[in-house]
Design a protein that fits this description.
It is a single chain. The protein is α+β, with helices and mostly antiparallel strands. The protein has four domains: 33 residues; 45 residues; 177 residues, 2-Layer Sandwich (Nucleotidyltransferase, domain 5); 89 residues, no CATH class. The protein has twelve helices and 16 strands. The protein has a five-stranded mixed beta sheet, with helices on both faces. Strands 8-11-12-13 form a four-stranded antiparallel beta sheet, with no helix packed on it. Strands 9-10-14 form a three-stranded mixed beta sheet, with no helix packed on it. Strand 9 and strand 10 form a beta hairpin.
């Protein structure tokens, strides 16, 4: 249209414009008389659809039962002769299904020192010391509900002992204990969560978690299943940690990962202005910290009791690591007490081994004195290899003198000479 008006302004006649554009002169005259105006489009005529004959039935069914699925309605209308597909039916159902009224979420705020939220999140990492192996690590995180102060530690497992160790470390970092800790349905904390016929909720917590709660004076609380938004104060920071800290960094090992994370929490995460509270996290925590319950006088020592079988090389597996038992242990099955700082092994209720707790995985520790016979080594004096291969016939605890093979050569030669003389 603009081109036609521009040609007319240049002095071209209607016939000349029609020849240049390949249009009829009547068409050119019509556009010149109309002038500049927005295009007008009429409504498109509806195309026939196979759903048309079932609109009344579908509308009545959805009015009575708004939550009926399209798959269920498809089975019903096919029994009545519908020959169309599911997609056309879904398009129609979407237009007539009653829309639920929007429900706004209620923000749940807690008083200072009242609550903290706890959870694990999965991360995938390749450490610089072993870049060909992508391994799974877990971030244990504790967030105070009032100030949003964040504490966390990357660990290799989600087992009960790790959970308890992280709790103790978090309380020490806080310098106190919140009144309530909110969990999801993590297996290490919640054994079962069900409702009876009257609708009453019955939650069974792990006995070791309850012992920890009694020692530190907090109340465990499990949020309902499939209700992650109940503990959004600890769920949302996981995305923040991933985007602001984790991505684009390199880590030498797990220790380096936690060192960088600790530095980031102190310099970035807990110094930022929080989007919900509009307060500096660190400053608000300084006001919340005095409201926390004081730490108990003594350390937490309750053990997780396990039964383990001794392997052929005289070790037991605890927390994906291996700990030795003394030579001469008679029982194949022993009782293990896994404390937060050490592993104790009992045979017939008698303590036979104590090991410091090992971080990491597939670590092997053989305590001094657990093996009577030393490992094979080289005798530097004779240049020969000493081995304890095969059965050694001597009393336990008595050393066998080691002799050079040359002695036996001299003995053999002397015996041969004596036999020849006879």
């Amino acid at each position: 249209m603009l081109m036609i008006l521009e040609m007319q302004a240049q002095g071209l006649s209607i016939a000349a414009i029609a020849r240049r554009l390949g249009k009829d002169r009547k068409t050119i005259r019509k556009y010149l008389e109309r002038g500049i105006c927005p295009p007008r489009y009429g409504p498109r005529a509806p195309r026939p659809c196979k759903v048309d004959g079932f609109r009344e039935y579908l509308g009545a069914r959805l009015a009575a039962f708004p939550e009926l699925s399209a798959a269920r309605l498809l089975r019903e209308v096919r029994e009545r002769g519908y020959a169309g597909g599911l997609t056309a039916l879904k398009d129609f159902v979407r237009t007539v299904r009653p829309q639920a009224a929007p429900v706004f979420e209620h923000r749940f705020e807690t008083a200072a020192g009242e609550q903290a939220q706890v959870d694990f999140a999965e991360f995938r990492v390749r450490f610089a010391e072993d870049p060909d192996w992508e391994r799974k690590v877990w971030l244990f995180s504790l967030v105070l509900g009032h100030s949003r102060w964040l504490w966390g530690r990357f660990v290799l497992h989600q087992d009960l002992v790790t959970l308890l160790r992280c709790h103790v470390a978090a309380f020490e970092a806080l310098g106190g204990v919140p009144g309530e800790l909110l969990y999801d349905q993590m297996r290490a904390a919640v054994l079962s969560d069900r409702r009876d016929q009257q609708g009453a909720r019955h939650i069974v917590y792990n006995a070791n978690l309850l012992a920890l709660a009694q020692h530190y004076g907090f109340t465990p609380r499990a949020c309902a299943a499939y209700r992650a938004k109940t503990k959004g104060k600890v769920e949302r920071p996981f995305r923040y940690v991933r985007q602001d800290f984790y991505l684009g960094r390199e880590f030498r090992d797990l220790e380096d990962l936690n060192a960088q994370f600790t530095d980031w929490r102190g310099s970035v995460a807990n110094r930022r202005r929080h989007g919900s509270t509009q307060r500096i996290v660190e400053a608000l925590f300084a006001l919340e910290q005095p409201q926390l319950a004081p730490l108990p006088a003594g350390p937490y020592r309750t053990a997780v009791q396990l039964e383990r079988r001794i392997t052929r090389d005289g070790v037991v597996s605890v927390g994906h690591n291996f700990y030795s038992v003394p030579d001469g242990t008679r029982q194949r099955a022993v009782e293990v007490h896994a404390l937060l700082d050490e592993v104790q092994i009992f045979e017939d209720s008698r303590l036979i081994a104590v090991h410091p707790w090992q971080e990491g995985t597939l670590q092997r520790r053989v305590a001094q004195g657990h093996r009577r016979f030393p490992a094979p080594r080289t005798d530097s004096a004779a240049g020969l290899t000493r081995r304890n291969a095969g059965p050694i016939l001597h009393a336990p605890g008595h050393a066998v003198p080691v002799r050079s093979l040359e002695i036996y050569q001299h003995i053999g030669a002397a015996l041969a000479t004596r036999a020849a003389a006879r």
